[in-house]
């Protein structure tokens, strides 16, 4: 008996092992196998028929009733909220809207896929943020800025006549995790998107997304009135410009009645904006808000602003936006990156969170791994997102987490939203790396419920994407949960930041310096290493960025003895022989952290190899290859950073640690262009 069981199990594993799986199904592998009866007595809609279809084909339990309810307690869950109640005989999903039923259905199916659907259930859920939005940095020629998964999903040249089946699959995947908005085009926006030629294409996508509860938004170029409207200015206080935007909004809404609104990058990195006309960000945002308000649209105005001035880049968003707090229309929300510089492996939070209290503020997270190894490195980002959302800003005393300052619970703002810069593309597996799918998933789940923990999200994702075998779960989740900290260690431990190669943001280039280029685009601006020490002094003796935080954080960060060590070099310039809590010198500590990062990537290879017979051959081989690149890159990072910093510290690498494998002069000479670079025969495309 026992032997038979073993044989069957081994056969089963070899079937799984031999299987080919290109990863295109994402976490939605549960298709088919159901034969549920789904009862709905109300008026059918495209969304309800999706709900019925998803449940009928996938739910493996008893009958399900859908209740489009007007009951007070169901309405209290909000339009997207739902309640799942009942047991084996009958389950009811109740919501006050079609969309709520859709989210309820996907929640139930997720519970089933995770083996967590109880025999009796009473679950009520409503989302933390009203708007849960993906930002696509996709250009109209289908290139994707900071995209590492092929071309853009949007086939502009074929639209509106031809609709890729991927539009529907994308919408379904998003709906399954509660994402309800997509900004289709890059924030470095082409004005062409607002032309009569392109708007019907946008409408075609919006029509596919609508039944899945997803609204379409567009990034708007502030110069559009001049560039595509034929006006001689784009001044936000000019009456013709205001009329142009009003007419444009009316034109869009005639095509797309539920259009979400505009996302704007203004006066940032060369983009046009209200400053070009001597106006403020509030003047610019409010003009667009006035054009959209009659139709119910919103403006997401980005606070990612910095100039090559003598002011610390990390301070600039606050300097510019804090004086404008309370001056924005109610349908404007300020979109703020999690950290004050730019999506680094670790940053403290941007002090606009908690700082702006009279204006709605939304977090912008980066799902695409611009600074975390592109789609080559396995880095599970939920711990980064979670750390940020749960950090206490102390804006209204303890408990004022970033999440509370943005979800409406602390300041009562009317709109609440969160955005993630998407990592999707035309690759079969959508994200370039099978594990990068987990970052898309994690963003959606945290946007729905920011109280979820990273390990819970990892567990859910693994069960749905790879299976629920215990060994697999344990190892994969171990790997995922260690991966972000490992990346911090092999790239930028102790909150070193922005020491990437200036163009592509992939490999290390801490030495890069060009007097003809913006200083704030060069690594030495950020690490400030010299023979005396390393790190950016942001205390009162330096840029005083610490003053932008509330007490007691301000004092905690200002003192190297109390500053969390994982933020140390963000706030302090310290001597190489500064004593760390471990008892080591700062130099030795850096050496140890880099070494630890490298060791972790080797461990990840071993962990993965243990799973060879538990993962299909195609995905197994793909991830193995990527882990090999990651392990090599980690050594590259370690050697480049330590050998370069050693020229300044003059201190030896502790003898117990592995010696460098590369020579600094060679690393410094490594070919680099903005498009590609080569290391050890590996050719990396930007
Ligand atoms: C879309 C960083 C990135 C840019 C990006 C910019 C932004 O600078 O490197 O590619 O542009 O942030 O968020 O606007």
Class by SSE composition: alpha/beta
State the total count of DSSP E strands. 15
Bound molecules: 4-O-methyl-alpha-D-glucopyranuronic acid
Overall morphology: globular
Fold and architecture overview:
The chain is α/β, with parallel strands linked by helices and 686 residues long. It folds into three domains: 95 residues, 2-Layer Sandwich (Chitobiase, domain 2), CATH 3.30.379; 321 residues, Glycosidases (TIM Barrel, Alpha-Beta Barrel); 156 residues, Alpha-glucuronidase, C-terminal domain (Alpha-d-glucuronidase, C-terminal Domain), CATH 3.90.1330. 37% of the residues lie in helices and 10% in strands. The chain contains 22 helices and 15 strands. The strands form three sheets. Strands 6-7-8-9-10-11-12-13 form an eight-stranded parallel beta barrel. It is globular. It starts with a helix and ends with a strand. The mean pLDDT is 94. The site of 4-O-methyl-alpha-D-glucopyranuronic acid has 10 residues, from loops.
Topology:
Elements: H1 2-18, E1 38-40, H2 46-58, E2 64-68, H3 72-75, E3 82-86, E4 91-95, H4 98-113, E5 121-125, E6 131-135, H5 165-176, E7 181-183, H6 199-209, E8 215-219, H7 224-227, H8 239-255, E9 261-264, H9 281-292, E10 298-302, H10 313-321, E11 332-337, H11 352-355, E12 360-366, H12 382-390, H13 402-406, E13 417-421, H14 437-448, H15 454-465, H16 470-491, H17 523-527, H18 553-558, H19 568-571, H20 586-609, H21 617-649, H22 664-669, E14 676-679, E15 682-685
Parallel strand pairs: 1-2, 2-4, 6-7, 6-13, 7-8, 8-9, 9-10, 10-11, 11-12, 12-13
Antiparallel strand pairs: 3-4, 3-5, 14-15
Helix pairs in contact: 2-4, 8-9, 14-15, 15-16, 16-20, 20-21
The protein binds 4-O-methyl-alpha-D-glucopyranuronic acid.
């Amino acid at each position: 008996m026992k032997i038979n069981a073993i044989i069957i199990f081994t056969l089963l594993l070899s079937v799984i092992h031999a299987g080919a799986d290109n990863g295109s199904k994402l976490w939605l592998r549960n298709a088919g196998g159901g034969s549920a009866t789904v009862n709905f007595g109300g008026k059918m809609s495209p969304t309800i028929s999706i709900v019925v279809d998803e449940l009928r084909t996938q739910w493996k339990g008893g009958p399900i009733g859908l209740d489009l309810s007007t009951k007070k307690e169901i309405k209290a869950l909000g339009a997207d909220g739902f309640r799942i109640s009942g047991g084996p005989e009958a389950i009811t999903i109740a919501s006050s809207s079609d969309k709520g039923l859709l989210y309820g259905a996907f929640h139930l199916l997720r519970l089933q896929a995770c083996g967590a659907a109880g025999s009796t259930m009473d679950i009520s859920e409503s989302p933390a943020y009203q708007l849960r939005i993906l930002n696509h940095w996709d250009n109209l020629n289908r290139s994707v800025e900071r995209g590492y998964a092929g071309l853009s999903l949007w086939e502009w040249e074929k639209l509106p006549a031809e609709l890729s089946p991927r539009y529907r699959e994308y919408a379904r995947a998003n709906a399954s995790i509660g994402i309800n908005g997509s900004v289709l085009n890059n924030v470095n926006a082409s004005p062409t998107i607002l032309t009569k030629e392109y708007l019907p294409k946008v409408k075609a996508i919006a029509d596919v997304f609508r039944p899945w509860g997803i609204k379409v938004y567009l990034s708007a170029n502030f110069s559009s009135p001049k560039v595509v409207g034929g006006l001689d200015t784009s001044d936000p206080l000019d009456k013709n410009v205001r009329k142009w935007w009003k007419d444009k909004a009316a034109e869009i809404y005639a095509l797309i009645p539920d259009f979400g609104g505009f996302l704007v990058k203004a006066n940032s990195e060369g983009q046009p904006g209200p400053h070009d006309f001597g106006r403020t960000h509030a003047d610019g945002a409010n003009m667009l808000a006035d054009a959209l308000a009659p139709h119910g649209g919103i403006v997401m105005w980005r606070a990612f602003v910095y100039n090559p001035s003598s002011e610390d880049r990390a301070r600039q968003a606050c300097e510019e936006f804090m004086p404008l707090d309370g001056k924005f229309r109610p349908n404007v929300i300020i979109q703020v990156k999690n950290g004050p510089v730019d999506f680094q492996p670790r940053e403290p939070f941007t002090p606009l969170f908690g700082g702006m209290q009279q204006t709605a503020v939304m977090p912008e997270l980066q799902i695409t791994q611009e600074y975390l190894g592109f789609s080559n490195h396995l880095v599970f980002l939920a711990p980064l997102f979670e750390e940020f959302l749960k950090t206490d800003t102390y804006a209204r005393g303890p408990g004022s987490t970033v999440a509370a300052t943005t979800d409406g619970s602390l300041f009562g703002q009317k709109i609440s939203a969160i955005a993630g810069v998407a990592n999707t593309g035309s690759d079969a597996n959508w994200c370039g790396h099978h594990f990068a799918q987990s970052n898309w998933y994690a963003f959606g789940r945290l946007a729905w419920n920011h109280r979820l923990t990273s390990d819970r999200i990892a567990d859910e994702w693994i069960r749905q994407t790879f299976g629920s075998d215990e060994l697999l779960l344990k190892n994969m989740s171990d790997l995922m949960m260690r991966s972000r900290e490992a990346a911090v260690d092999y790239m930028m431990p102790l909150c070193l930041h922005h020491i990437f190669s200036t163009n592509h943001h992939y490999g290390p280039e801490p030495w890069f310096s060009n007097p003809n280029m913006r200083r704030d685009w060069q690594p030495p601006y950020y690490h400030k290493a010299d023979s005396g020490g390393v790190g950016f002094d942001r205390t009162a003796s330096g840029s005083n960025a610490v003053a932008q935080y509330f007490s007691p954080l301000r004092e905690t960060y200002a003192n190297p003895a109390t500053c969390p060590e994982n933020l140390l070099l963000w706030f302090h310039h310290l001597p190489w022989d500064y004593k760390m809590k471990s008892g080591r010198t700062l130099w030795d500590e850096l050496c140890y952290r880099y070494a630890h990062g490298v060791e972790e990537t080797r461990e990840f290879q071993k962990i993965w190899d243990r799973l060879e017979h538990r993962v299909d051959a195609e995905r197994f081989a793909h991830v193995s290859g990527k882990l090999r690149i990651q392990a090599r890159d980690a050594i590259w990072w370690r050697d480049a950073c330590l050998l370069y910093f050693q020229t300044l510290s003059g201190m030896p690498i502790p003898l117990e640690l592995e010696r460098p494998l590369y020579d600094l002069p060679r690393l410094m000479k490594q070919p680099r262009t903005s498009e590609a670079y080569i290391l050890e025969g590996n050719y990396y495309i930007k």
